[in-house]
User: What shape does this take?
Amino acid sequence: MSGEAEARLWLGRIRALPPGPPVAIMNVCGGHERSLSMLGLRALLPEGVRIIPGPGCPVCVCPEEDLADAIALAMAGGVTLVAFGDMLRVPINAPKGEVASLAAARAAGADVRPIAAPQDAVAIARAAPSRPVVFFVAGFETTTAPVAAMLAEGVPDNLSVLLSARLTWPAVAMLLAEEDNALDALVAPGHVATVMGAEEWRFVAERHGLPVAVAGFSAESLLAAIYSVLRQKREGRAFLDNCYPELVRPEGNPTARRLLDEVMEVTDAAWRGIGVIPRSGFALRGDWRAHDARARHVIAAPPRRRAGEMPPGCDCASVVLGRRQPDQCRLYGRACTPRHPVGPCMVSDEGACHIWWQAGVRAH
Amino acid sequence: MCLGIPMQVVAIDGFNAVCEAQGVRRAVSLFMLGAGEVAPGDHVMVHVGYALRKMTEGEARSAWELLAVLGEAAP
Assistant: This one.
């Protein structure tokens, strides 16, 4: 059966479900949000079925302190700072006239380079062995595992890592633990589960009694997952379903998980605009700490006013937590557009604001 | 950032592979896969230069069709 025919089949099944009270389903993956928005899937669902974009954008939750550290390191000179392209335009709150992003640091003469893969960082470090290279890493497990692999495989001495990596599920656990949360079901992220395993999401059903389904990125996989959780909800059941079995195994990718365990440990970590979430971040473990940029460099970032702040008027933190839709932010489409982004959710390809704008959603 | 791209393995040297998608070739690390798990001609899901998992040709093709619809960037 073609993908399109399969998508139609799942949609038919969704529409054939008996009607019931409104259902709010959260997704926690920028890739899912992109497919849902760009393929126009929301408009096809029955009335009362809402799909809410949740914490699925690692760039959006990278704390200001870490960005400020990266900018300060780059501006101090004497190092090459490399980062995934998305990170360069993310703005921080800085007094007028001061450098407020890595892109601005680069424009001011700092050696800041966008890269697409950890191997690029290794190649840049090898090409200039006497120059310190700092790899600033924001990302979820899909990105952190390759960085762990890069370190385990062996990197040049002059390469260090400024880590701002996060786990996906603890933010969901935090949201579900809140008594007034309005969530009825979860669509779990397909490529995070490819690495970490579907089993990681079982807590949603077992601890919180909510339906959960791992989805891929095609219309048919997303609609299959939406059907699964809707049907579970209508039948008063809650279990873990895997609607992306082509890539996702219950245990994930064992090699990737072993590398992550060897190189990284899990720590409490700050999420921008949200605060500290217990055991939600990665830090280098044991001997690998020799490659921690914070251990090698004195970082003279100006003190921040408080942890996790967003630019004035920016609702990005509420958008990340699914408490506000992108177009409910006062700045959306007015002061804040992809061309002139105010907050990180409009900068990143995975930010809900950026995706909704690209899909044609305009300010009210 | 968490959206992988399917690619076909062209050549393998240890853990380093050359993979191709839509006529574009890239260096891809096989360090996160089991030894001998993939061979030239196989398809893999690649994220930030690392193969996350082997996939079938059919899965790779349907993933590419999706990326084309979404207008995602080249690998």
Remarks:
- The interface with chain B takes residues 3, 29-31, 34-35, 38-39, 56, 58-59, 84, 86, 116-120, 139-140, 142-143, 145-146, 149-150, 152-153, 189, 191-192, 194-195, 217-219, 246-247, 253, 255-256, 259, 348-350 of chain A (CB under 8 Å).
- DSSP finds 16 helices and eleven strands in chain A.
- Residues 219-234 of chain A form the longest helix (16 residues).
- The mean pLDDT of chain A is 95.
